Amino acid sequence: MAMANASYELPPLPDYTLQPLPPLLPWISDAHLALALPIIGYWALSGFFHLIDVYDLFPQYRLHTPAEVLKRNHVSRWEVFRDVIIQQVIQTMFGLLMNMFDEEPMFGKDDYNVAWYAQKIRLAQRAIPVCLAMVGLNPTALASKVAGSQPMIAGALAGGRYPGLYEVARIGGVETVVPTFALWEMLVAKILYWYAVPALQFLAGILAVDTWEYFLHRAMHMNKWLYVTFHSRHHRLYVPYAYGALYNHPFEGFLLDTLGTGLAYLLTGMTVRQSIWFFTGSTLKTVDDHCGYALPFDPLQHMTSNNAAYHDIHHQSWGIKTNFSQPFFTFWDRFLGTRWNGDVKLKYERSRHVAQQKMEQERENEGRGGVVGVEGEEAVSSNGSASASARVQVKAAAAPLLSARKKSSSISQSPSGNLKGLRTKVNESLHGRGANVLGVERSH
What we know:
Elements: E1 19-20, H1 30-55, H2 66-71, H3 77-99, E2 106-107, H4 110-124, H5 127-134, H6 139-146, H7 151-157, E3 166-171, E4 174-179, H8 183-222, H9 224-229, H10 250-268, H11 272-289, H12 308-314, H13 331-336, H14 345-381, H15 388-408, H16 420-431
Antiparallel strand pairs: 1-2, 3-4
């Protein structure tokens, strides 16, 4: 069959047949995995930082001392745990509802989509001769000059015309000679389809989430009613910790996190499988931003300048009207002048000092209570006739114990005994006195 009979200027797109897409895991659908994996990731990463807290593994990288954890937060860990679970239940129910409207994932169209991108690459080459002519070059002469040694370059310079690229294809049951794609066109098309476009979708999703959360978050601070009614709950955590990342009012949690990421997913046209990684990545980043550590080996803290140290400033009373950006980039804070630019070292030192003073005062008060109890017993044993000298002796005996007790609880001990006096209290706060998991304390 002669090439002159070919009726196609562009290589035709292949036929395809759609089939149901098998799930990544045989025992759970991809849609349900997209709901479960972010929650699993949330508690797995939170558990990692929780163990670091309990065993005081990296005290040199703490943003706050254990004394601050105990004395500055205005909410118990049980309340935090409970509210996070509530938000995740709402998030899951909303996701299940949305899944009812999603079409069943299909596959079988990948080759068609790659060829579609290749067609657009071929069409884009038609602009090359026009651009060359605009700068005074002769595209025909250039194509002729390199045709012998570089035929692919010559075809591109000629506007996407490749005289030797034809193949016989069966179209509508009839064999027809049609143009075909150059190898480089197919390679670029595959890169676009499999890597570049998904990366752009992720980037667009990140920008959408950052924009949504910045303006809603800022509105929660600028509007007194919104702050008092909803957002103030999150700011009971002056010293954030990992599993408090989603501690919010249920309505705020739905509006900021669930709806924000859901809209980003829909607007960018991600597939369900893409959403698995997008939702999980966003969740892990949010947890990491509240972890309370500036770990040099944590990759999530070095992806952008928006990390635990950056967001922690927003949780302090002096930085609460700054650093609204969450959870990825900080460009809105920079563009709109809400980024904290001052020195924070002295402010953090002052907070540590005040918290430590409160801790020491509490220890001292507990010690004095113990002395009074001893005096009372002495008085009863002598039928109310204990002398002043006996009370002095009791106080003198109790003084060294009190001094040693205060010394053991100081947070300025040597690294070998890092904060051991406080570790017991932190552990009780983290685990509950009944050693329950994740700080779920028993009600008293």
